[in-house]
Amino acid sequence: MSTKNWPLWEVFVRSKNGLEHRHCGSLHAADEEMALENARDVYTRRSEGVSIWVVESKHITASNPENNGEMFEPAQDKVYRHPTFYDLPDEVKHM
Amino acid sequence: MSEEQVKNLEEQFEARIARDEKIEPKDWMPEKYRKTHIRQMSQHAHSEIVGMLPEGNWITRAPSLRRKVALLAKVQDEAGHGLYLYSATETLGISREEMYEQLHTGKAKYSSIFNYPTITWADMGAIGWLVDGAAIINQVPLCNTSYGPYARAMIRVCKEESFHQRQGYEIMIKLANGTPEQKEMAQDALNRWWWPSLMMLGPTDAESIHTAQSMKWKLKRKSNDDLRQQFIDQTVPQAELIGLTIPDPDLKWNEERQSYDFGEIDWDEFWQVVKGHGPMNKERMKARVNAWENGAWVRDAAMAHAEKKQDRKEKKAV
Amino acid sequence: MKNENLYKYILGIADNSLILGQRLGELTGHGPSLETDIACTNISLDLFGQVRSYYQYAAKIAGDNRTEDDIAMLRKEREYVNVLLVEQPNTNFAYTIARQFLFDVYHFLFLTQLEKSKDLTLSAIATKSLKEVSYHQRFSTDWLKRLGDGTAESKEKMQEAIDGLWTYTDELFHQTEADKAMVSEGVGVDVTKLKEAYYEKVEAVLKEATLTVPESKWFQKGGKQGIHTEHLGYLLSDLQYMQRTYPNMEW
């Protein structure tokens, strides 16, 4: 019987140069080389990627949804951060 | 948390789902939601990997190189889909090993259809055409289910599976247009797989538990009977097109309902297979358990090696 | 056949990929983890892809009506010219990895040379395959190290597999008559010249994997002349089952 299980890794794939890496799923692997190879074999079978990042899931620090109020709501009324807040004369078409 | 607080949270939770909001892993969720999802998602994952076995049975014997690579790729996809689904389920706080344990001890179920044997090449056609056809009907609505990781996994699965049914139907077309012997092989496979495929869509609504709750959580969008009718209505013309006969003497187009009427399903057989007494239940489980147990030393070695490597790296750093 | 030597030469390359691909195909659904299962199937698919390119080319050279499937599935046992190494069974995962590694190192060196072939079709297949095989080699090398330098149990199993398969390595560097003819035309690869680099590479990896390089100098041969181990017959009865049972049909 296995004593220790392979840890979980998160996989991020860049689908083509110019685009960001996007999270596409997770997998199990014993070490980083294996994680990278497994990610290649599992998540790019249909030419989905040109670059892969893997990171062991335990190294990700995530915000807690319970704190979503204090974390994200204060940004909601800062409308002056968006261009639509500012009035422009109709004659100025692009700015 | 007081009972009232929990009730309050539950109401908010249900309201979020009703508004079509997605639930994500770290969100608060009722225990029942978590448990139901672990059950359904792991069952789905198990079905993918047990489902590799009946088709894997023909990889070495595929009749042409073209068929062989298509079948290999399809069975491999099933491993991938199992993997996506296990990973999505892990976000609910259960490990893949625990899920395997449940599968291997018979605590968790998987789709009963995989407990039938694949005895001729035509079974590869019938499985792709009928079993994947029925699976797609079940799965497409899940792309929109309420639990985010499940919905995302399903989007990936559905995208990749689009070739599976075609792969199977193409095998059937070739056989149906082939020699009398080939046509007979195709008809025989249809005869054997038709009823189990109908059963695959689940017990009749009258006997189906969990349905109301599952509808609310968008784990299910239509009832089993509606899905079954949809499957029959779409499949019958496909059979006719290639000159095969659906093995149901009661099958008849109902002009009024604009649907096919069909014969009685043998639910005794269904429950027998579900309860572990299908033709291949024992062999399927044995194959899974063997793969897992024979692989233990390999998985252990990889971990031991990773630790050694890490140690060496740390020593170097000192 | 006008180009009989070329035809035979192509089969000598392709049969290795066919038989190894078939062996790997047996494992789908039975691997030690889902991830490794998927990886091994990828290798199998790469190999079958190569096989199809080679056989399609061979069929064209033969110039009659034969197809890639006729070549793959309708020859007699003595007409398969793969090396003995690739037909060895999946005794356990250590054997699968050892077989893969011992073949990959050769395959990579071979394709690197085949890429320079005067035959443009072979050269093009080699270029494409080389990318795939570079990855195979990386995969099997990494696993060899993991199992060699893993637990005591895995080390023992890995060593046993290497010891067991070592006897089939020398055959990789034997030249057939078709080989010699093709080398002289600048089409084929002189495999005798790959031997040194092969053992150098293999021994270096074995050492890194904390394994012992086998000392035995007794080697098996015969695959290239169609004299196989008893394992091949069973593999072929699966591979050929449909074509033999239902002759002259399309699938």
TrEMBL record, chain A:
Q: Name one Pfam family in it.
A: PaaB
Q: Which domain of life is it from?
A: Bacteria
What NCBIfam families does UniProt report for this protein, alphabetically?
PA_CoA_Oxy2
Q: What is this protein called?
A: Ring-1,2-phenylacetyl-CoA epoxidase subunit PaaB
**Species in which this protein is naturally found:** Winogradskyella sediminis
